[in-house]
Amino acid sequence: MTPLEPDHGRPQEPSSRLLRDDTRFALGRIAAFQYATVAVFLFLIGGFWILQVRDHEVNSELAERNRIKTVPLVAPRGKILDRDGRVIVDNRPSFRVLLSRESVNRDHFAAIAQGLHLDLAELQSRVRRYDSRPKYIAVPIKTELTRGEMAFVQSHSDAQTFPELEMIEDPSARLYPQSGLAAHVLGYVGEVSDAELDTPEFAKYAQGEIVGQSGLERQYNDILMGVDGQERRLVDNVGRVRQVLENVEATPGHSLQTTLDIDLQAVAELSMEGRKGAVIALDPRNGEVLAMVSRPTFDPGMFASHIRQEVWKDVMNDPDTPLLNNAIQAQLAPGSTFKPIVALAGLETGLLEPNTTFYCPGSATFYGVTHKCDAVHGTINLHQAIVHSCDVYFYNVGNRLGIDTIAEYGQMAGFGTKTGIDLPGEAEGVMPSTKWKLRTQREKWYAGETISVAIGQGAVVVTPIQLAVAMGGLAMGGVWYKPHLVRDAPGTDQPRRANLRADNIATVVSGMNGVVTEEGTGAAARIAGIDVCGKTGSAQRISNTLAKSNKALASTMKDTAWFVAFSPCDHPEIVVAALWESGEHGALAAPIVRDVIKAYFDKKARQNQLKPQQIAWFRGPQ
Predict the structure, then answer these.
(1) In angstroms, how far apart are the furthest CA atoms of the chain?
(2) What is the pTM of this model?
(3) In terms of domains, do 336 and 229 share one?
């Protein structure tokens, strides 16, 4: 058979058209796929360029942090020593825990707070305060870990539980003396607060740093505080340390040698046991503070670790104000301890002579107001008036002088201005005058107000440190050194001097010696074989009228007892001022001062019996 020839004249079969349509459709899909592939490729190239070129440094740093951990090495804080080189404040080994913000999981906070005995809200607030800081800076969440808390961190800081926890050694944890000895002088340390960071004093520090908060710890923080180091560690994906890449050692802080004599400090502390007030002992020849006590006291160690808000509030609301340094911050009327200044003012101005007499019938009336005396002294001279603390005599002297003359000599002795002691928070007291009242109360001064000031009452208020400095300078013949707690403190070698007559100084000093030796008001300060000059003072805290109308208040606001003394009388080596709030009578404060002065000379006698080599061994390395 002859093969069939195609019939070109007839239309094509439907299958041929479908084949051509499928080819065109496939070509379109291939083209779309090619375009998509190019787009994806361009996208990947762009991302690669961003990662490897534009953000190379940033991503390299992030990758580095994923495998390198930087751990701070805390610098030991400098020790605080007494004048003989004995350690008062030392460091002890401790541990603190940090929270890494790079691996933090906020869902873990409740369990972490429970395990470390932290308040959950405080922990959350603490972490939030670091939100504005770089992620690699860890948050210190607790110091002074207990054994149980250390065990908690060690057992839960793995990658599967709480990888954000990091425990580090803390060699700067403070070890303070027991029983709050010298607590107000030494002060305490604590974490710098947000409010403090906003002040010029603390602007150079960072969140989480431990700084001095009071006392010498704060005053000399820059000396005591070292410079932290750091260690860069290579870690694996579960946080195990594989290699230490870099170790920058911490620089320890410098030790601080004070002028304190820890032996005298201990005696002064014991003398104030169970009392509220202060004792300050210093060397009037150079201003070195030998002892400083404020009661009630506190334990500085409780601030070294994390202190709960409720505990802090209890301390701040304590009516006995244990954080107040009464030695430099208590401002009270000086009572009769002010009389030697008034006597000196009378002698220097010529309005008073040593043989000037006044009659004391037990009271005196000035400007229509009757002022009482504690006894009927009869006709007495200046020496007798100082010995027996006759108020009527000094009412008359004050009335002759006037307030501005009294203020002139009071300010010369340092009343009404800060002494400049190297401690934060010193109060300046008040030395009233006509200008002072006009400036502070917009009123004129009335002559009748001078009568009370002449016996250390009325508007005049002083601090114990001011009283000690004032009497020390008077005993030195009108030379007042700036009190200080650290040897070679700046500005302590140039004293203030006043041009006072030696015979007038001798008259006042003789009267103060009689206070102790002539059965005066300070006879309880007498020490066998030691020459002591002193002056008692009893000062009202509320008026007689208020005391009569409110007996409950009067029972809690008893008179303040003061006693100030120096020894020896002719070439003084030590001056001691004691304040006993609610002690009622200055004579009752005299034994406090006596004990401190006796301890000073007893120690001096013991050292004089030792050979120079023994003294050097006792004092230790300087």
Answers:
(1) 174
(2) 0.82
(3) no
Rounded Cα–Cα distance for residues 289 and 574 (Å) = 10
CA distance 363 to 279: 33
Can you read off the two tokens belonging to residue 434? 């006509």
Answer yes or no: 336 catalytic.
yes
**Does residue 62 belong to any structural domain of this protein?**
no
pLDDT in tens, 151-184: 998 888 877 788 888 888 888 889 999 889 999 9
Q: For 575-596, give the DSSP string.
A: EEEEEETT---GGGTHHHHHHH
Tell me the per-residue pLDDT of 361-408, one tens digit each, with 9 for 90 and over: 999 999 999 999 999 999 999 999 999 999 999 999 999 999 999 999
Consecutive H or E run containing 211: strand 210-212
Single out the residue of 568, 556, 559, 557 nearest to residue 586, CA to CA: 559
Q: Considering the chain, what percentage of its residues have pLDDT values greater than 70?
A: 86
Residues 6+ away with beta carbon under 8 Å from 1? none
Catalytically annotated residue among 94, 172, 214, 336? 336
**Residues of the domain holding 72:** 68-257
> What average pLDDT does range 41-60 have in this prediction?
69
Alpha-carbon distances, residue 274 vs 104, 245, 295 (angstroms): 50, 57, 8
CA-atom Rg of the chain in angstroms: 39
Residue in this structure with the two tokens 């008036």, named with its chain if needed: 385
346 and 463 in one domain? yes
